[in-house]
Specification:
Layout: H1 3-26, H2 30-43, H3 45-53, H4 64-91, H5 94-116, H6 123-153, H7 163-195, H8 199-219, H9 222-259, H10 262-268, H11 271-282, H12 292-311
């Protein structure tokens, strides 16, 4: 893995964790996904249109007629990912949902890349991926333990749902999000390297596609349109920030993915878990002093894993 690709993924991971923290704070639902998509489609339109009009949307020898259906499939994967992620954030802590999603997805991506693309990462790189994955699940475990202890200490009415059910539901959404992360990572690698689509055009195209898919479902029915209209004043500021940062982060990751194997890029992106968990505990107040030991071990494992990937 080249130094340039390594730096792209690391900076991308920091930006990714930042927009996820902003998204968690918004507490928005499916309407938030639409608002973010609408802003992103507009903000990044100059880039997408410039790439398209300059004739750089696809590599030489590839036609737009072939590329656009591939972008549509990416749109479905990313739309499902955003929806599941936001649903998880509406139920559980960022420091629980984020590590599960980001930890599960890249590990599945690495396994699928070896199976489907014949990638053969070095033993050092595989060890690094394993260390990063182990650190991710340690972070998730520490967050889950904190949530359970916190709820056990608080009194609840018998009529209220049990705290553990909420935790388990958040875990489920986190794992489902990870599944879609694996799906879009493997598919986007094919679209980039196999079909020959420009990373900038792919990200902008999936954003526009997401708005076109969600827009009619959320804006045509009167009741749903009213929900979006009522939610907009309280969501537009954070939505605009996410609309700038989310595509930027993924464009950087896509650029690295175009020139590097999935089995290197996908695990390395997991360092965003460490950043995201720190954001959740320090800035969102989701931390627990008892979980510091696990998080220290997890952070050390992930740091060693990143070093192994860089060397491998």
């Amino acid at each position: 893995m080249t130094l340039g690709a390594l730096l792209l993924v690391i900076v991308s991971a920091f930006i990714h964790a930042t927009w996820n923290m902003i998204s968690k704070r918004s507490r928005g639902g499916i309407e938030y996904v639409l608002i973010v998509g609408g802003f992103a489609a507009l903000v990044w339109a100059p880039v997408g249109l410039w790439v398209l009009l300059a004739g750089n949307a696809v590599d030489p020898g590839t036609s737009l007629a072939v590329a656009l259906p591939c972008v549509l499939v990416s749109t479905v994967f990313h739309g499902a990912y955003f929806t599941c992620l936001q649903k998880g954030y509406s139920i559980g802590d960022m420091s629980l949902v984020y590590p599960l999603a980001r930890g599960t997805g890249p590990l599945l991506s690495t396994a699928l890349a070896m199976l489907l693309y014949g990638e053969r990462p070095s033993v050092t790189a595989l060890a690094g991926a394993a260390l990063i994955g182990s650190g991710a699940f340690l972070l998730a475990r520490s967050s889950s333990t904190h949530a359970k202890n916190q709820h056990e200490d608080s009194s609840q009415d018998a009529s209220e749902p049990t705290p553990s059910s909420g935790i388990h539901t958040a875990v489920g959404w986190g794992l489902l999000t990870g599944l879609f992360i694996a799906g879009y990572t493997i598919w986007d690698k094919f679209v980039l390297s196999g079909v020959g689509v420009n990373p900038l055009f792919l990200e902008w195209g999936t954003t526009v596609g997401r708005v076109l898919l969600l827009g009619p479902a959320l804006l045509l029915p009167v009741r749903r349109r009213q929900v979006v209209i009522q939610a907009y004043p309280g969501l537009w500021k954070t939505a605009l920030l996410v609309a700038i940062l989310s595509p930027l982060s993924y464009m950087m990751a896509l650029t690295a993915l175009k020139i590097s194997p999935v089995s290197y890029v996908a695990p390395l992106r997991e360092i965003s878990i460490l950043i995201g968990t720190l954001f959740g505990s320090r800035l969102l107040g989701e931390g627990d002093p008892q979980s510091k030991r696990l998080r220290t071990i997890a952070a050390s494992a992930m740091a060693l894993g990143v070093a192994a990937l860089a060397l491998g």
